[in-house]
Amino acid sequence: MRNFVVGILFALIALAAGGWWCLKQGYVNFGADQRPSSIEEKFAMAAMDASIDRRASEAKNPVAPTEDNLAAGAKLYLDHCAGCHGVPSNPESEFARSFYPPVPEFFKEAPEMSESQNFYVIQHGIRWTGMPAWKKTLTDAQIWQIATFLGNVEKLPPAARKVFGPQEGAAPAPMAMPMTH
Ligand code: HEC
């Protein structure tokens, strides 16, 4: 029994040392032009979903989806987020696919999380991705407005769609968004 425990301990130490050696030798590629492996995608996504479930409040979004609020949310989105997350005229950009992991493109696929979860993600960002924490540059009221906009991105009224200008052939420059307000 004693040998068995020693064996297991030894195997664990060898595994940790081997892992550390691989890292120190530079075998892990940190380039953003890699595709996340399916294992990494599965584990990282499950961990992130669980982290958001644990931390996001269940507060009800105080900003109602009126035409005015959706237009204001669209304007904030256009100024701060569209450069990465896309616009109706260019929902799938090469730029969005140049991140590791790639940026979710909201005009191709609406966000799946609830508005209060989106509020949490926008406030705090997602580390090791390109998603910044916005709590120091946007107020809570602005973040709720954007969350309302994202929750209704598939059914925007004309006033909100107008914010994005003419829909035909108007692709914005990738980094056209100012990062602060
Ligand atoms: C510099 C690029 C960049 C900017 C600017 C940016 N994001 Fe992101 N965002 C990302 C990336 C990359 C992810 C994906 C992270 C991941 O897959 O875990 C992301 C993820 C998200 C998510 C989670 C989506 C999901 O379903 O998993 C939300 C919500 C979001 N962003 C909203 C916003 C909002 C709102 C703004 C503007 C206030 C914004 N982002 C600005 C890069 C950006």
What's the quick description here?
With 181 residues, the chain is mainly alpha-helical. Helices cover 48% and strands 0% of the residues.
Describe what you observe in this structure.
- The chain is mainly α.
- It folds into two domains: 1-29; 38-162, Cytochrome Bc1 Complex, Chain D, domain 2 (Orthogonal Bundle).
- The protein has seven helices and no strands.
- Helix 3 crosses helix 6 (140-151) and helix 5 (115-124) packs across helix 6 (140-151).
- It starts with a helix and ends in a 19-residue tail after the last helix.
- The model has no long low-confidence stretch (mean pLDDT 92).
- Heme C is lined by residues 48, 80-81, 83-85, 99, 101, 103-104, 111-113, 118, 121-122, 126, 129-132, 134, 146, 177.
Q: Please, what is the average pLDDT?
A: 92
Tell me, what is the CATH class of the largest domain?
Mainly Alpha
Question: What compounds are bound to the protein?
Answer: heme C
User: What is the N-to-C order of secondary-structure elements (H for helix, E for strand)?
Assistant: HHHHHHH
Structural class: mainly alpha
Fraction of helical residues: 40-55%
Please give the CATH architecture of the largest domain.
Answer: Orthogonal Bundle
Number of helices: 7
Quick one: CATH superfamily of the largest domain? Cytochrome c-like domain
Main beta sheet, described?
A: none
Summed up, the domain count is 2
User: How many beta-strand elements?
Assistant: 0
Radius of gyration from CA coordinates: 21 Å
| Low-pLDDT sequence parts | none
**Proportion of strand residues:** under 5%
The CATH topology assignment of the largest domain is Cytochrome Bc1 Complex, Chain D, domain 2
Compute the separation of the termini in Å: 65 Å
- Shape from CA axes? elongated
